[in-house]
């Protein structure tokens, strides 16, 4: 029997932007598997979604571990139904300037941000191709476009995510699978807000055309649209959610 809600996966969905995306998708009628390496953070997200009992499903795995990803998505699909949408939100970075970037940190950052996106997308896309429908949304960053200074490995990995997304759109489009990428600017996450001074936050807000720092909800609304049937004719695109910090 067809599940009462379509199934979606959000990687890195236990905190900040990922958590907000997961909760937004639930509010719009999805059942969401949250794939994250932190079971305590997933449990916290479940508590926020307790009014929608059973609609946020914990999936603990590293996105760089193909066998663990395959097992997690298989377990989720067995009860929630075939995955119709995937949001590749998981990522990480470490502070370093170009001349200070180490090989070890480079490998770790690229593995999580780029290879992890490839692995989860490939696993999910095989099922989507069989269904003849699906939506994949990748999360990138304005760092990929040189808008602000940051670790070179992160900028390179996110640029790779954008290139991968375009190729996925071309190769999966004939099978009914749409792929788009959201390019995120400065977002007022709890981590950022707790570590920046009022003057620093004001400077960040001034760098946008909207005059404010973005919120996780700004990103979640666009992602939910791209997952929905309302975006059925949108694929292969970069959508900037940066308040104009980067204009596509």
TrEMBL record:
CDD domains: SDR_c
One Pfam family it belongs to: adh_short_C2
Segments crossing the lipid bilayer: none
Matches recorded under InterPro entries: NAD(P)-bd_dom_sf, SDR_fam
SUPFAM superfamilies: NAD(P)-binding Rossmann-fold domains
PANTHER family assigned to the protein according to its UniProt record, in alphabetical order: 3-OXOACYL-[ACYL-CARRIER-PROTEIN] REDUCTASE, CHLOROPLASTIC (PTHR42760:SF40), SHORT-CHAIN DEHYDROGENASES/REDUCTASES FAMILY MEMBER (PTHR42760)
Family the UniProt entry places it in: Belongs to the short-chain dehydrogenases/reductases (SDR) family.
Protein name from the UniProt record: 3-oxoacyl-ACP reductase FabG
Taxonomic source organism: Luedemannella helvata
The gene coding this protein: fabG_3
């Amino acid at each position: 029997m067809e599940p009462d809600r379509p199934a979606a996966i959000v990687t890195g969905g236990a905190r900040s932007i990922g958590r907000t995306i997961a909760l937004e998708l639930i509010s719009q009628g999805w059942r969401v598997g949250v794939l994250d390496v932190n079971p305590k953070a997933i449990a916290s997200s479940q508590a926020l979604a307790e009014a929608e009992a059973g609609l946020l499903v914990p999936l603990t795995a590293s996105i760089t571990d193909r066998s663990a990803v395959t097992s997690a998505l298989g377990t989720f699909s067995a009860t929630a139904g075939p995955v119709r949408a995937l949001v590749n939100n998981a990522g990480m970075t470490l502070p370093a300037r170009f001349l200070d970037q180490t090989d070890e940190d480079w490998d770790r950052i690229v593995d999580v941000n780029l290879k992890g996106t490839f692995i989860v997308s490939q696993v999910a896309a095989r099922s989507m191709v069989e269904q003849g429908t699906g939506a994949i949304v990748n999360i990138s960053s304005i760092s990929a476009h040189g808008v602000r200074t940051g670790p070179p490995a992160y900028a390179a990995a996110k640029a790779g995510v954008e290139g991968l997304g375009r190729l996925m759109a071309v190769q999966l489009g004939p099978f009914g699978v749409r792929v788009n990428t959201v390019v995120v600017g400065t977002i007022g996450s709890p981590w950022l807000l707790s570590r920046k001074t009022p003057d620093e936050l004001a400077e960040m807000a001034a760098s946008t055309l909207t005059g404010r720092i973005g919120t996780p909800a700004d990103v979640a609304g666009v992602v939910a649209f791209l997952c929905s049937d309302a975006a059925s004719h949108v694929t292969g695109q970069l959508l900037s959610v940066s308040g104009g910090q980067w204009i596509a």
